[in-house]
Amino acid sequence: xxxxxxxxxxxxxxxxxxxxxxxxxxxxxxxxxxxxxxxxxxxxxxxxxxxxxxxxxxxxxxxxxxxxxxxxxxxxxxxxxxxxxxxxxxxxxxxxxxxxxxxxxxxxxxxxxxxxxxxxxxxxxxxxxxxxxxxxxxxxxxxxxxxxxxxxxxxxxxxxxxxxxxxxxxxxxxxxxxxxxxxxxxxxxxxxxxxxxxxxxxxxxxxxxxxxxxxxxxxxxxxxxxxxxxxxxxxxxxxxxxxxxxxxxxxxxxxxxxxxxxxxxxxxxxxxxxxxxxxxxxxxxxxxxxxxxxxxxxxxxxxxxxxxxxxxxxxxxxxxxxxxxxxxxxxxxxxxxxxxxxxxxxxxxxxxxxxxxxxxxxxxxxxxxxxxxxxxxxxxxxxxxx
Amino acid sequence: xxxxxxxxxxxxxxxxxxxxxxxxxxxxxxxxxxxxxxxxxxxxxxxxxxxxxxxxxxxxxxxxxxxxxxxxxxxxxxxxxxxxxxxxxxxxxxxxxxxxxxxxxxxxxxxxxxxxxxxxxxxxxxxxxxxxxxxxxxxxxxxxxxxxxxxxxxxxxxxxxxxxxxxxxxxxxxxxxxxxxxxxxxxxxxxxxxxxxxxxxxxxxxxxxxxxxxxxxxxxxxxxxxxxxxxxxxxxxxxxxxxxxxxxxxxxxxxxxxxxxxxxxxxxxxxxxxxxxxxxxxxxxxxxxxxxxxxxxxxxxxxxxxxxxxxxxxxxxxxxxxxxxxxxxxxxxxxxxxxxxxxxxxxxxxxxxxxxxxxxxxxxxxxxxxxxxxxxxxxxxxxxxx
Lengths: 386, 386
Fold this sequence. Notes:
Two copies of one chain form a homodimer. Chain A contains 14 helices and 17 strands. In chain A, about 45% of the residues are buried. In chain A, strand 12 and strand 13 (about 310-315) form a beta hairpin. Chain A is α+β, with helices and mostly antiparallel strands. The model of chain A has no long low-confidence stretch (mean pLDDT about 90). The radius of gyration of chain A is 26 Å and the shape is elongated. At the A-B interface, strand 1, helix 1, strand 2, strand 3 and helix 3 of A face strand 1, helix 1, strand 2, strand 3 and helix 3 of B. Chains A, B: It comes from Candidatus Endolissoclinum faulkneri L5.
C-alpha cells in the first residue's frame, strides 16, 4: 500500500459533466510541467502573463476570441450588471494585453501563459470542460523566422517535459477559401463544398464543383511528408494568388528542418478546421500514442491594426499528461509520536516525505502501515516496513 | 530600459471591478511561490489536490462552504440545467474530497491545494475578486498536535517564501456564543450585544447586558501576548463549560512555542469574525508591514460525520506578495539575426534570457536597445550595452 490517495470510485462526488478533481501525483505532475514549460518560454524572452479568469463579454470575444463564443460560460456581474464570461481560450487574452496595456512595448511582444480555461460544451474529442492551456504568442512580427521560432519553442517545451517523438503538420487554412472565391460558385452549394473538402470527400466535390474543381480535387490528394507534398503543390495548376501562399510554408519548413533535421514534418494544405481565424500558416503537433493533436498554433491577426500580426501556439496539457508515464506517488516515512522535530526535518531536507504520528500508539509499525507509509523512523534510523 | 513589460497605464483594458491581469515578474513570482509552498506541504505528507473550479451549488455550499454563499458567482450549466457556482473558497472542496472520493483513505487525511477563487463582492479589505488561495487541511484527527502541526506548517510555508517576521493570533470563536447562551439574554438585544463584542465596545456592552456582563467585559479586555492573556483568562470568573475551552489553546500554544520559542503568539479570546464555522481554536497570521492578516485557519467540522473534525489554514497569496520585495525582471541578451542556435542555447542553459532578432538589421546595438535588452551576443561573446 502506498502513501497516496485511496480512491473509492463509488464515492466520487457528483460534479457537472466534464469536470473532475485532480488528485495527488497527477496534480503535482501538472503543476511541475507548467513550471518547466514556462521557464523555457521565459528563457527565450517570452514574458509570462496571468490574465483574468473573467472578462467582460465584449473584450473576451474580440478578434481571435470570436471563434470561442459558443464555448463561453456567461453570467451577469452583480457589480457592473454587465455580461461577463469565463475565458474559454487564453490566446485572445494575450492579444488583448499586447494591444492595450502593452501597446507601447517594443515589437515583437513575446508573451507566454498557463492557466485554466472553461468550456460550456463537451464532445467526444474534448470530453473535459475544465482544461489547462499552456501557450506562447509573438505579436507584431510577420517574418517566417517568427513562425519558425514559435514552432521550435512548442517542440522544445514538449520535449523537455518528456514527449520524445513529435510530428508537425503544416496547414495553409487561407488556401481553400481563396480557391473557392476564385471559382465563383453559386451561394447555395458553397457550404456543401466546404464540408466535402473538410471531409476529403472527392466524389461529392467532383459532382458539385465546376470546371475548376480539378484543382480542389488535386489539392485534397496532397498530404503527407513535406518534401513530396510541397513538390506536388508546386506542380498543381494553382492560380498565381494561391501560389503566393506556398512561399511561407516552404520558408518555415526550411527553417525548422535546418534546426531539427530529424523532425517529422507533414503538410496538409487543404485542412482548415478550427483555424478559421488564422491568416498565415497553421500547424498541429502530434505524437505517437495519442490520436489527437497535443498542440496547435499558427499565424493570425491579433487585432484590427494590420501591423498586429501574431503567431503562437497552444499546448493541451491534459493530452500531454495522458501520453506520459504516470509519476509514482513517492513513499512516505512514518514519524512516531514524540520523535524530535529535527530528525523528521532532516529527512525532508533530503527529499523524503514524512507523515507525523499525532498520538502515542502501542504498535508504531502497525500505525505506519495503516497510514500507508513504507518505512518508519526509529532512533534516528529509517527502517523499511516488511 | 529593462527587457520587461512596458505598461501604458492609460491603455489598461477595462476589466470588471476587482479583476486585473498579472504581468511578468509578478506572474512568475506568484507561480514560483505556489510551487515552493506546495512542495513543503507535500514533504509533510499532505496530498496535493486540484479541485474543479466549478461545482454544483449544493456541493459547493455544503458544511463549511455555507459561509461562502454570498460570494459565489452562480450560473446555469447549459448541459445539466442545474445551478453551478464558481468556487469562492477551497477549504470546502478539500473537505468534500476527503468525505467522498477519499472516504476510505486512512485518517487523518492530509490535503494541500493552491488555486484561484472568485468572489462576487469586493470591499475595502478585499478589493480583489480573483484571488489565489494556498492551503492545507488535516481531516479526521482531533488532537492538539494536529492543530499545532497545521499552524507550524503555515509558518514554515510563509518563512520559506521570505516572510521573516510572523505573529500568530489565537482565537476561541466558540467562547463568546457559549457565554451569551449562558446569559439567557432577550432575543431582541442579542445581535446588538454580538456587534458590541465584535467592535470591543465595552460601553454598549455594560449598558445592555445583565448582571453576567462583567465576564464579557472582562473577556473583551483580554488580548495580547499569550503568557499574560492566558493567565488573565484563567483568573476570569468563567463558567465551568467555558473554562473547558481554555484547555486546547493552552496545549496548542505550548506545542508551537516549544518548537518555535521566539515566535510571537498572541491570544484574542473574544474575536470570532469570519470564524463562524470554526468549532475549536482559530488563528490568524500577521506580519510586520502588512495591516491585514496574511493567512488564517483553525478547527472546523468538515461534514455531518462527528468524526470529521478538521483543522487547516489558508494563505492569502496576494497579501504575501504585497509585502515581499518585488522580483526584478531579469535582463535579456539580444541575439542578432543569423547567430548560430547553439550559441544562444548555451546562454539559456546558463540561466540567461535570450531575445532573438528575427531579421537582419543595420545596427544590432540599436535594435538590442530598442528591444530592451541589456547586452548583446557578438561572436560568441556577451557584450554589455552602454
